[in-house]
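Hey L., structure's done. Input below.
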Amino acid sequence: DSNDPASYKSRAQAAQSQGQCLVAGKNTQGVTVLTSADCLFSESEFDDLLWQVGKGGKLVLNHKTQGVAVSTYYVEGGVNLEGGRFLEINGVLIADGTVNVGENSQWKGDSGFNQLTINDPGVGFPSGILTKAKINFGLFAAFQDIEITGLIYSQDEIRLVSIPMAFEVVGGIIARKFSLTSAWSHLNIYLDNDIIREGVWGGPTPPGGEKPPYSPVVTVEHWEE
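Output:
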């Protein structure tokens, strides 16, 4: 979130100023009820978008191909998906705060399961959901299989609790701690190093352009039993 042009927050600001952002909200009948040309949101602004789609509605963060800062959406705060909402990310969503998906079924009178889908826009574009805090997938996180093509990244803990449907990740998961409790269905993780690198770097190459040497070796610094 630095002022460096390569940071995700700077990319989101650039995309917004260049008119590259496209957010659409549809209600349960598939009727478009809102559009937004923003890529950078406060926590309350993003909450408002989710609320406007209504129970069973879907908020879609679309991919646009003009310019260099594409498919990047940033929330200055946390993200809470509850009250029976869909969220579809075509690209990457970054949050300063904790991301909760289906931790609660109730939200201001609405209730239901909540669905997150992440799609990869293509080679060279990052995809996933990233946060400086925690990511929690709760009991009300899905009413159909969860499909994520991208990087799930947390500087703290990623927590999956009582996932009712199959949870599939194509890409990778990076976290300080990963917790899986009482899964009701399959958890499938398919490693894709290109998707991981695009998520970490914000594109096919790191800022500055020089790729560091890659090694698949895992180093254990300390082990206790």
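The chain has a mean pLDDT of 90. The CA atoms of residues 36 and 109 lie 25 Å apart.

-- N.
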